[in-house]
């Protein structure tokens, strides 16, 4: 568990979150500051600071399986976007790997 990591605290049940899905390696919960009508974060239960520190590539199977489950549950009718911010320039603010799943509004490209 990462010290003072907000997502480790959620995984440990020490902080509240609106969990939408869980499998053996991942947890999915609503973003506290949603940037779209539906905004869910999919995180590994293990503390991994960013996408650069994934040592076991099979973790992505669990993460993407969780993404599929969440997509099925929130039923986006007209598409969705997955985002993984890595590092300062990308705007990563929580140093625990997470995939953003955003849907429910049209989105621009390129991202800001
Ligand atoms: P990033 O900027 O990619 O690191 O995204 C971090 C995301 O975590 C932001 O969208 C925050 O709103 C979200 N977030 C931070 N703390 C919490 C929390 N306790 N519960 C749910 N989402 C959170
Ligand atoms: Zn953590």
Automatic annotation (TrEMBL):
Motif Histidine triad motif per record, residues: 96-100
Ranges for domain HIT: 6-112
- The organism's superkingdom is given as Bacteria
Question: Which first-to-last residue range defines the signal peptide?
Answer: none
Q: Which PANTHER family match?
A: HISTIDINE TRIAD HIT PROTEIN
What's the name of the protein? Histidine triad nucleotide-binding protein
Q: Which organism is it from?
A: Dethiosulfovibrio marinus
């Amino acid at each position: 568990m990462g010290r003072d990591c907000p997502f480790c605290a959620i995984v440990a049940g020490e902080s509240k979150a609106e969990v939408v899905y869980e499998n053996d390696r991942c947890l999915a919960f609503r973003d506290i500051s949603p940037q779209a009508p539906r905004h869910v974060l999919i995180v590994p239960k293990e503390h991994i600071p960013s996408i650069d520190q994934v040592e076991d590539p099979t973790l992505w199977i669990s993460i993407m399986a969780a993404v599929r489950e969440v997509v099925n549950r929130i039923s986006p009718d007209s598409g969705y976007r997955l985002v993984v911010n890595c590092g300062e320039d990308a705007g990563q603010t929580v140093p625990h790997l997470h995939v953003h799943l955003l849907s429910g509004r049209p989105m621009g490209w390129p991202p800001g």
